[in-house]
Amino acid sequence: MAFKKTIIMKIKNICCIGAGYVGGPTMSVIALKNPQITVTVVDINKDRIDAWNGPLESLPIFEPGLSEVVEQTRGKNLFFSTDIDSAIKKAEMIFISVNTPTKTYGEGKGFASDLTYIEQSARHIGRVANTDKIIVEKSTLPVRTAEKIKEVLDAESGDNKFEILSNPEFLAEGTAIEDLLNADRVLIGGDETDSGKKAVDALVKIYNSWLPKERILTTNVWSSELSKLAANAMLAQRISSINSLSALCEKTGANIDELSKAIGMDSRIGSKFLKASVGFGGSCFQKDILNLVYLCKYYGLEEVAEYWHQVVKINDFQKQRFAKNIIEGLNGTVNKKKITILGWAFKKDTNDSRESSSIYVTHHLLEEGGEVHIYDPMVKENQILDDLSYLWESLEISDNLKEKYFKNVHFHENHLTALNKAYAVAILTEWDEFITYDWSKINSTLMKPIRVFDGRNIINEKYVFKNIG
Ligand code: UDX
Ligand code: UDX
C-alpha cells in the first residue's frame, strides 16, 4: 500500500525525543491541557526515564508545580519510555527536544551549536517512520536547520512526507510551569505551502487548548528559529549591561540596585532583567549568543558578531571580577583558607547548574589555593563534581592538578557546617532560604574579620564587604 502523500492533521499521539528541562515540563503541560492526546516522552538515557517514572518527589528535574502536573497526567495520557521506535511509529507529531551544546571540536569550535543529536534524532525518525509526520523543532537551533532536518529525513525515509515546524521554547527554569501555562507568546514557524500551513494549524490547535489565539504567533521557519536566538541575546544583553555598570558603581560609590530601579522605572526600558549579579548562567544564554556570533561571522557580518560577543565577554569579566574581589578582600590570598560558596544552581528554584557562575568562581578560588566548601539546597555532590570535571576537561588541566583541586572541594548537606570557620562567604544563587538564615548567629561561627560577598545582592547591604559581628 502506498503511503499517503498528505500530512495527517488529526493529532492523537505525540512523541517527544528528549526528556530534559524543556521536553519534560513542556510535554507534561501539553498532556494536561490536551487529555484527548497521548503524549510519550522518550530518551536514550534510561536512568532519566526511570526517574520520570519513579516517585514524584524525585523527578529528574526540580521545577515548582511540575510534580503536580505529572501526578495528574502520568499513566493517563503522559508516558515516559526508552522505546523510541514505537513512540515514533505511533505519533503523528514528533517534537525534537534534545540538547544542542556549543561545539567543542572542529569547525565552529567554541561558538557553533553541536547538531549531532538533532541529526541523530532526524535519522532515527526517518529510519523507523512508517507514516507521514509533523516534526517540531523544540531545541534551539541555528537558522536554516529545518532545511537540514528535512534533507536528512527525506534521505532516510522512502515515501513518507514530513513537515518541519519551528516552535522554540521560551520557558525559564524555576518558573517553567507558570511560563508554559501563562506564556507571553508561543511562536510557530512553518512552510508557507498548503501542507505547511496545515501542520502549523495542527500545532496551533494544541496550544490553543489553553492559550488564546492572539498569543500564538505564526511566522516563517527562519524568523521563528532566529527569534529564539535574538530573544535570549537581548535578555542576556540587559544583564551584561547592568553588570558592566555594577563595576562602575563599585568604583564610584553609586548603588547598582538604586541605579537599576531608576533605569527600570522608565516605561520604555522596563524593570525586568536588570538585576546585577555574579553573571548569568544556564544552558541557553551563552550557548545561544555564541551561536548567533557564529552565524553573523558565517555571513560576513564581523561588526554584528563582535557586538553580541561582547555580551558574553562582559559576563566572563563579571565572574572573574567577583572571584578577584574575594581574593583582594582576603588580603590578596585565599591560600589554605576556607571559603564557603552558598548556592551552586545557576538561579533559584532549579537543580540545574549548567554554566553556573559558581563553577567559574570556584575554579578561580581553587587556582589560588583556596579550600572551597559548597552548600546548595537542591544540587547534589555528584553534579558539582561533574560540573568541575567538565570545565577542567575543556581547559585540558593535568590529572595531577585535578586531583589537587578535588582535595580542596568539600560538599555540605547543611549550611551551618559549610559556614563554620569560613574566612569568606560567597553567595552565588539567590535561594530564598539564604535571606532567612539567622545571620547574626552565623556571624559568631565565621572567622574574623567577617567577609560576605553577596553575588546576588540579596542580603542586607550592611553585610556586604564590611566587617560585621
Ligand atoms: C533544551 C533544548 O533542547 C536546547 O536546545 C535548548 O537550548 C535548551 O533546552 P534541555 O531540555 O535543557 O535542552 O536539555 P537536557 O536537559 O540536556 O535534555 C536533553 C535530553 O535529550 C537528555 O535527557 C538526553 O539524554 C536526551 N537525548 C539526547 C536523547 O534522548 N537523544 C539524543 O540523541 C540526545
Ligand atoms: C532563559 C530565557 O529567560 C528563556 O526565555 C529561554 O527559554 C531560556 O533561557 P533561563 O536560562 O532558564 O531562561 O533563566 P533566566 O531566568 O533567563 O536566567 C538566566 C540567568 O540570568 C540566570 O543565571 C539568572 O540568575 C541571570 N539573571 C537573570 C541575572 O543575573 N539578572 C537578571 O536580572 C535576570
* 3D shape: globular
- By DSSP, the count of extended strands is 13
Taking the sheet with the most strands, its summary is:
6 strands, parallel
Sequence stretches where pLDDT stays below 50 over 5 or more residues: 463-469
Summary of the model, kept short:
This protein has 469 residues and is of the alpha/beta class. The protein has 18 helices and 13 strands.
Describe the protein.
The chain is of the alpha/beta class and 469 residues long. Helix content is 45%, strand content 12%. It contains 18 helices and 13 strands. A 6-stranded parallel sheet has the order 3-2-1-4-5-6, with helices on both faces. It has a 5-stranded parallel sheet with strand order 11-10-9-12-13. α5 links the parallel β4 (93-96) and β5. The chain binds uridine-5'-diphosphate-xylopyranose (UDX) (2 copies). One uridine-5'-diphosphate-xylopyranose binds at residues 169-173, 232, 235, 239, 273-275, 277, 280-282, 284-285, 346-347.
Layout of helices and strands:
Elements: E1 13-17, H1 23-33, E2 38-42, H2 46-53, H3 66-73, E3 78-81, H4 84-90, E4 93-96, H5 116-128, E5 133-137, H6 145-156, E6 162-166, H7 176-181, E7 186-189, H8 194-208, E8 216-219, H9 221-252, H10 256-264, H11 285-298, H12 302-329, E9 338-342, H13 357-367, E10 371-375, H14 381-394, H15 399-407, E11 409-412, H16 415-419, E12 424-427, H17 432-436, H18 439-443, E13 452-454
Helix pairs in contact: 1-3, 5-6, 9-11, 9-12, 11-12, 12-13
The structure holds uridine-5'-diphosphate-xylopyranose (UDX) (2 copies).
